[in-house]
Every structure is written in structure tokens, then in C-alpha cells.
Amino acid sequence: MCKSRKPVTEVFGSNVFNEAVMRERLPEDTYNALKKIMSGNLPLEPAIADVVANAMKDWAIEKGATHFCHWFQPMTGLTAEKHDSFISPTSDGKIMMEFSGKELCQGEPDASSFPSGGLRATFEARGYTAWDCTSPVFIKEDGDNITLFIPSAFFSYTGLVLDKKTPLLRSMDALDKQAVRVLKVLGNKTSNHVIATLGPEQEYFLIDRVFYEERLDLMLTGRTLLGAAPPRGQEMDDHYFGTIHERVASYMNDVNYELWKLGVSAKTQHNEVAPAQYELAPVFATVNVATDHNQLTMETLQKIAVKHGFVCLLNEKPFAGINGSGKHNNWSMVTDDGINLLGPGKTPHDNMVFLVILSAVVKAVDKYAKLLRASVANTGNEHRLGANEAPPAIVSVFLGEQLNDIFEQLAAGGATSSKQGGEIKLGVSTLPPLPKDCTDRNRTSPFAFTGNRFEFRMVGSTQSTSGPVFVLNTIVADTLAEIADELEGAGDVKTAAQKILQKIATEHSKVIFNGDNYTDEWVIEAEKRGLPNIRTTVESINTIMDPENVAVFERHKVLSKDELHARTEVLLEAYSMQINIEAKTMLDMTKRQIAPAVSAYSERLASAANSVKTAGADPASQVAMLKEVCSLLGSLNDSIKKLEAAAEKASAVKDAAKQAGSFKDDVIPAMAAVREVADKLETIVDADIWPLPTYAQMLFLK
Ligand code: ADP
Ligand code: MG
Fold it and tell me: In this structure, which residues have their CB less than 5 angstroms from ion ligand 2?
């Protein structure tokens, strides 16, 4: 089946109120004013907002929209929307379609049920949304409903931040301000702004929907809580970059078209390491737009899956024993006149701006390693970090051969040369000699320099990219601020800069590791170096309120102490709630599906033993099987009781940190015990009786 599609060039951005649409539909002076407003150089006046709103409404209505909504990102990490139609009744019993500047700029949802981490009591329901004009307004088609979406920030009546967007925007400002200071003092005369950029690689699984419908764990928790290892996993390495199966390819094609309409520049797609695992990466954008686009990507991946009879699993660890899913955050900084500040150039050793920026990042990652670790701490990622497909929980930086050499030269007093890549000759007359990068890749590092950007690989696949990025922006802004302070006060900037580079290369070299992060030796070595290794989500969240973290957020006006505290409460509560749901789901499945199936199987074995005996043969084998099954059923029931008790105990704890601790220490081990017996039973119970689709079915049926 070949669908006739419009050309991609026509489709791309067709549902976005983008630059081209603005230029076409706005009066010239309004367009010029809006451009200034979007770059932060002019406040938004009501008169301008009215003109812009009207143009947006006309454009949206022409595209079939009946509603608009402020689209925001509460601390759940998901997106939220409340639709209002454009209709306004008139005195003659008819309607007009209206949309004012005020409606564009501000919304007031009764937002009492979003997590606030204690920033607001439920009875104080008022929350506001405010138009974020730096991320384009777009139209979304959901079924027959067509709606104008307005990306927005979300905050409380008292002005406290309740969302993921505001700290991200604030952190962008902080980074901009400090990076520009450094650029200016180093002699840059052309750049006025520095913008953080992000390209998130989204990993996901696709399984047939029929299996999903038969598994309560997938429906309620997004991951399998039970399931024996299949006879075949990912050991053949045959899925990674393998031929994309037709059904999956058609799905990807639909996903791309949907995303392109929304202006999301979906670019790369391929099979990932685990069976049934895939990846999509867009072309990078400013961190704010990229974060919005990643939310749309996650939503679209799930929405289109249903149309193809698939379910898209975004969870960090849907299946035990094979790779989980991450979301590598490729991050850099670019000036408004197009200089990539992490672009090393041909001879990085004499590229002072690059060396200073690079050193600022290395220092920030070393100094705030715990904060970066906490920015990726969620329930799903706990199963991923430190398992041997994901970077370990130890934060370290990979620089690669060339930059590592330069860093060593800096520590020794100054860099005078850059190792060059050379050529690769394959000894085949028809293949040309190819340029070789000056550095190999390292797939195991949690924070790797990859040629012109850093790739933060610890981020989980379900996560909003906002958290990891606003942490990164803030801590780098902080080290840049320190550097700017020193350089601005120095008589001879060049000498001062050399001194700073030497100091950073000496004091922070401990965070640099270019070897295999998956080995046990690295864990021991990292401990010797004094690098933190925070293995669990709860321990990691509990480091967020450390005084140096509160201070760095307050210094750069990204989050106040109260706002940060609220966030830790939300994270801890989310952890407890999710583990509680997982425990209850596991109990439901084991009590109502597994135990009855095992019991039915024992009945079958018992009657088989009796029949065999009556027929005059020796029933020893049947009896032996029966005994094993009965004994395992006994263990299953015991472990179920223990899990019930653990979940009850944890649920009764009041304090958020203590409660999360109890879920970690009491409930998770109790769940592991239940799973161990249930998975054992799966390997011996009659396949016809086993009530759940198996790993082999879910992972290998395309
Ligand atoms: P990999 O080979 O590491 O899997 P991909 O091609 O899948 O890489 O993804 C790389 C991502 O990095 C893309 O989203 C790309 O746009 C992004 N990227 C490239 N340059 C930059 C940059 N300067 N800033 C941020 N992201 C970038
Ligand atoms: Mg990739």
C-alpha cells in the first residue's frame, strides 16, 4: 500500500504558526515588534497581543480549528491542556469566533490537582498559564478535534513556579548572561546572545497491541513486572541497525509525517539494540523548543502506534534482561551569530573560547555531579542506570583522545598542539581514503564529548528533557560566572585565562574518564577518585537540597529554595506512588491470574498421576512435577503475603522521604521475591494454561 502524500517540503511546519506565517499574516510593524518580543528585547504590549491573537485565530479557523488551549508542563513531567472554543454568543442567538490578546497571553486553569510539592494547598486552586512566545504556537489534530495550541508556562497565584518550562527558560537566561560575559571579556565583538541547544535521541519499544491488552502490568505501569527470560534475547546483535521491518517502517513513516506537520524535524530512525526497540532523533533546536518537541514526539509515537496495532512503550525498562530505553541529550551552546561554542575547530589547543567553555562544562559536571545524577533520578531509570547497557550511576566525562591530550597539556602549563585525525586507508582500490575523526566514540560514558557537543546519556526515555537541561544550563552558567568574574578583574586576560584553564585541568581531571564505564574496575577507580556513585533514585533525590545545590539555583534565579524543595517532594511522592501502583498491580496479577493458573495446572498433574496409576503405569514423573509445582505455589503465596505487608507498611509512612525510603527498602525487594518465583513457574507450567503473553511473543512478533 502506497499512500499518496504531499511533498515533505509542503507538509513540514504546515500546522505551525511559524516565521513564514507570521510574516505573511501580521502587519509589518506588529511582525517586527513580535520578533523583538520573542528575542527578549521588548515587553509584550496588549495592543500587539490583540493583533497577533487575531491573526492566529484566523489562521487556525482556516485550518478547521474550533478551540484553543494553553499547553503547559506541570511537574508530572507530562503535558496538560484545557480547551476553550473560540465561540462568543451574540445577542441575535448566533455566535462570533473570538480570540483576544488577553486570552493568548494568559490562562487561568483551576489547577488544584497538579502536584505542587506543598507550594499550594488544594483549596488555593488558582494557577496561571502564560504564553511562552519563544516556542511556536501550533495546531494539533486529535481525532476530529482541531485545536490551536499555545505553549505556556504555569505558576501559582503567589507567583511560585509549578512547571517544567519556567525553570528551563530561566536557566537559558542565566546561561546566556554568563556565557556572553565570558565571550565579551575574551574579545568577541559580534555575539549578543548565547542559546543552549538540544537534540534528544528518543528510544522506545513497539509491541503488538493484543499482548498489551492481556497484560495489566503494561497497561498500568508501562513495564512488565513479571516474565521469564526468553530463550533468545539480544545476544545475536542482529536487531541493532538491522533492516527495519515493513510494519514498523510504515509506522515510522506515519510518525514522521505527523511530526513534520508540527514542525518537529524528525531526522534519524533506526532499530536499537534490544529486540522490538527503536530510536528517533530530530535535528537539534533551542532547548526550550526541543523540549516541547520531544513532548510532542513522545505523544505522537504513542498515538500513531495505536493506528498500526502497536503499543509504544516509553518506559525506561519495559523488559528485564535486555536493554532499557534512554534519551541521550545532545547539548551545546550557540551564539546568535551562529558560533557553536563547543565546536573545537581544527586546532582546539589555540581556540581559547572553546577551551574556556569546555573547561567550564568539565568543572560544572565535576562540581555538581550529584545534581546531574538527581536530574535523571526517576522510578524507571533506577532499573537502567548501572545495568550493563546504560551508563553507570557514576557521573564522569569522556573527552576523547585529542581533547584529553590538550587537557593534560593545559594542566602542565599550556597547550601547544592538537593531535590530528589523519586518514583511513582500507586497502581496497575502489574505496577512497577517508578522513578519520581525531577521536573515537565512547558508548559507555554518561557524559561524552561527541565532536561538537556533549551527549548526556543518563536521561531516561520517559523524562521531560527540561530537568536535565535546566540543571546543565544552571551549573555551567555558574562556572562561567566564576570565570567571567576572574577575567573581568584581570589586567592581562590571556594570562589569566591560561591560569584558569590550568587550574580547572588540574583540579577537575578526576571527573574525566575515557575508558570503559561498564567495568567493575571503573567503579573501584571512581571510588578512589572520590566520585559519587549514587545507585538509587531515592538516595539521589535526597541530595537535591544540599546547600550548594540550593545556592546555585538561587544565585542564578532559576529556582528558589522553596521551589526546589517542592520539586524534591514531588519527585519523592511520584516515586512512592509509582512503586505502590507497581506493587498493587503485581499482587493483582499474581493473586488473580498466576496463582489460579498454577493451581489449575497442579490439578491437571494430579489427575494425570491418578489416571496413569489407574492404567497400571508408574506415575512417579507426574508426582514429581506436581510436587515441584505445589512447592513453588507455596513459595509464591508466601512471597505475595510478604509483599502485601511491605506495601501496607510503606503506604502508612507519612513523611515523603521516609515513605520513598520504605518503598525502596521494603517493597522493591519484596516485589523481586515474588517475581523470582512467578518467573520460575512460567518456565514449568503448561504454556496453554499460562495466562500472560511471554517475552518471546511480545519481543519477536512483528
Ligand atoms: P548518535 O550517532 O550519537 O546516535 P544521532 O544522529 O542519533 O547520534 O543523534 C545526534 C543528535 O545530536 C541529533 O539530534 C543532532 O541534531 C544533535 N546535535 C548535533 N549537533 C548538536 C548541537 N550542536 N547541539 C545540540 N545537539 C546537536
Ligand atoms: Mg542515535
Answer: 201
pLDDT at 1: 47
Q: What is the pLDDT of residues 512-526, one digit of tens each?
A: 999 999 999 999 999
Q: How far is CA 80 from the centre of its chain?
A: 17
33's grid cell = 515588534
Ligand nearest to the CA of 267: 1
Point out the residues of the chain with pLDDT beneath 70. 1-3, 120-125, 387-389
The per-residue pLDDT for range 260-304, each reduced to its tens digit, is: 999 999 999 999 989 999 999 999 999 999 999 999 999 999 999
pLDDT in tens, 51-87: 999 999 999 999 999 999 999 999 998 999 999 999 9
Of the listed ligands, the closest to the CA of 265 is 1
- Identify the residue whose C-alpha is closest to ligand 1 atom 1: 201
Measured in angstroms, how far is the CA atom of residue 700 from the centroid of ligand 1?
A: 29
Residue for grid cell 541493532: 240
- For residue 452, the ligand 1 atom closest to its alpha carbon is 23
Please give the radius of gyration of the chain, using alpha carbons only, rounded to the nearest integer.
28
Ligand nearest to the CA of 451: 1
Question: Which of ligand 1's atoms lies nearest the C-alpha of 270?
Answer: 7
* Residue ranges lining ligand 1, Cβ < 6 Å: 197-199, 201, 268, 281-284, 330-332, 340, 452-453
Dist CA 359 CA 361 (whole Å): 5
Residue nearest to atom 13 of ligand 1 (CA): 199
**Considering the entire predicted model, what is its pTM?**
0.96
H or E element at residue 153: strand 145-156
Q: 305, 303, 304, 259: which is closest to 285 by C-alpha?
A: 259
Q: Which domains does the chain have, with CATH numbers?
A: 8-162 (3.10.20.70), 172-228+235-558 (3.30.590.10), 575-700 (1.20.120.1560)
